[in-house]
Amino acid sequence: MQNVKNLEKVFKALGCEPRLWILWLLSQSSLCVCEIMGILGITQTTASRHLGYLKNAGLVESKRQEQWMIYYLRKDLPSRIKEIVDQTVKAISELPEAKIYKERLKSITSDESYRLNRVRR
Asked: What is the pLDDT along the chain (121 residues), one digit of tens a residue?
């Protein structure tokens, strides 16, 4: 059930540029921190801190694959929150920077040997 405090967490999580880009990236693919770092050009500490905000707001979940923590957008968001996230992702997709980040994402996710190695480690 949604309440004002939950909505406040969601809007605070969406109120920061790096978190918006991370949300957009995770709408495209599940990723580990190192992949997010590489795509956005941010440090591990910064990526982890912003992922924590998104996770605390209930927008992102994670699962452990051996020593890797893989982050992904929650699929079971409440319908109103899902609408907000979908519209946010759509708006971000239309920004000029999205093309650059999409190319970086594509280069990482198309490197099958890297992704398989990440899962095996």
From this structure: 468 888 999 999 999 999 999 999 999 999 999 999 999 999 999 999 999 999 999 999 999 988 889 999 999 999 999 999 999 999 999 999 999 999 999 998 887 655 555 544 3
Its pTM stands at 0.87
Quote the number of domains for the chain: 1
- Give the integer Cα–Cα distance in Å for 6 and 97: 30
Q: Of 71, 34, 79, 27, whose CA–CA distance to 53 is shortest?
A: 71
Domain span at residue 104 reads 4-120
Dist CA 40 CA 19 (whole Å): 11
CB 54 within 8 A of CB 13: yes
CA angle 3, 91, 36 (to 5 degrees): 85
